[in-house]
Amino acid sequence: MFARKILVVEDEKIIASNIRKSLEKLGYLVSEITKSGEYAIKKVAENHPHLVLIDICLAGEIDGLHVADIIQNHFHVPVVYLTEHSEYKTLHKNQLSEPFNYIVKPFIESDLHFVIEMTLYKHQSKKILYEEKQRLTAIINSMGYAVIVTYTNGRIEMMNPIAELITGWKESEAFGKDLVEVVNLVNKDVGETIENLTTYVIEAGEVFNLPENCTLITKDGQEIAIGDNVAPIRDRNGNITGVVLVFQDITKRKQTEAQLIRNAFYDGLTELPNRVLFLDRLRQTIERSKRRSDYYFAVLFLDLDGFKEINDRFGHGIGDDFLVAIARRLESCLRGGDTVARFGGDEFTILLEDIKDITDATNVAKRIQDSLRLPVNLNGYQLSATASIGITWNFTNYEEPATLLRDADIAMYRAKRQGKATYAIFS
């Protein structure tokens, strides 16, 4: 796999040198190091790096935030902010609100690696989502739009065949009826009917974009997600003579967006949250615990004992089915607000929120062990497995998910050394 190019924008020479060493050690290619925002923009245009690491309080005529904005919006290159802890407190609410787009100095290599990989992953996911939206829009446009025209009093003057198809009304039936009677729209975000579209557009004299989650209730009661706008119709003198509603069925686009989001955050085999979603929830939980001194949570790192033997003996198909069955078992051992994720292979992670103490976590571990002892019936085979479980909880002030997971992983290996089919608490 080719090394990703990273441009470093840091005006402190020693820090910049250390960052270069860390990045190269992690397998990245440092295309350039600069302390100038203007020069950084020039280098992005010339070299097209995969990512830019930039000091948020860069000295010079253009500050780091402005430079980053240009890089992201004009060159579509992802940016990770480098910030001091004092700057982070000041800027966090506005500029650093998006997860995984910054790292606080000083930092360890594993945290730097995690933030860079997450930023690259998010950038790629957004790119895929954007391209899919563009493709779907082109398809829908080639098929045509639904069009309904009204008089200034809101009565329907005409509607085209696609509008007939989507609404379920024939033009002959709808002619002369009030737009609200034929086009029953609901804003799903607030659960309210959208009324007086014609009146609003005529009084405002401007285009009205339908809400993001706008639903059309058809003549036979079906709900269809639609999108587009309502615009005034003007004569040569600029006088409004009516209103035109242009819309399209965007149900497929909504489903595609939902599926893309699901693919990005859920494991395709077990349908459990994946590593990305688990880390995001863990980060939110850590932030929550900082605001409440009495808020405790625990992380369990679970590795199946003997899963390789099941794969080798019965094949990967049975192995996959077994992992799915284990996922359901793990879910059954947790409360509704807890999270179990497939971290990779036969490794699972569990986040227990708002617990009283470590006993709550060990009780869950025991419950999991009891559940796993019950055999799983697959294709006539009675299969079972145990698990080694590592447990850690916020008895110390964890700052980063990676650190907490590292400790849970250490405890899991301790459980393996103790003979497997047991749990160990990190200390």
List keywords for this structure.
Rossmann fold; Beta-Lactamase; 3 domains; globular; 15 helices
Low-confidence stretches: none
Question: What is the CA-based Rg, rounded?
Answer: 28 Å
Summarize the amount of helix as a percent range.
40-55%
Question: How far from one another are the termini?
Answer: 38 Å
CATH third-level topology of the largest domain: Alpha-Beta Plaits
Q: At the fourth CATH level, what is the homologous superfamily of the largest domain?
A: Reverse transcriptase/Diguanylate cyclase domain
Q: Report the principal-axis shape.
A: globular
Largest sheet: 8 strands, antiparallel
Quantity of strands, as a count? 20
Proportion of residues in extended strands: 25-35%
Mean pLDDT: 87
**Oligomeric state:** single chain
User: Pairing-aware structural class of the strands and helices?
Assistant: alpha+beta
- Compute the number of helices: 15
What can you tell me about this protein's structure?
Helix 2 (37-47) packs parallel to helix 3 (64-74). The protein is α+β, with helices and mostly antiparallel strands and 427 residues long. It folds into three domains: 5-140, Response regulator (Rossmann fold, 3-Layer(aba) Sandwich); 144-255, Beta-Lactamase; 266-425, Alpha-Beta Plaits. Helix content is 44%, strand content 26%. The longest helix is centred in the first third of the chain and has 35 residues, at 109-143. Strands 6, 7, 8, 9, 10, 11, 12 and 13 form an eight-stranded antiparallel sheet that branches. It has a five-stranded parallel sheet with strand order 2-1-3-4-5, with helices on both faces. It has a five-stranded mixed sheet with strand order 15-16-14-19-20, with helices on both faces. It contains 15 helices and 20 strands. The protein has helices at 13-25, 37-47, 64-74, 85-91, 109-143, 161-167, 171-174, 179-182, 197-204, 251-265, 275-291, 307-314, 316-332, 358-373, 401-417, and strands at residues 5-9, 29-34, 51-55, 79-84, 102-105, 146-150, 156-159, 184-187, 192-194, 208-209, 214-217, 223-234, 240-249, 296-305, 339-344, 347-355, 376-378, 381-383, 386-393, 423-425.
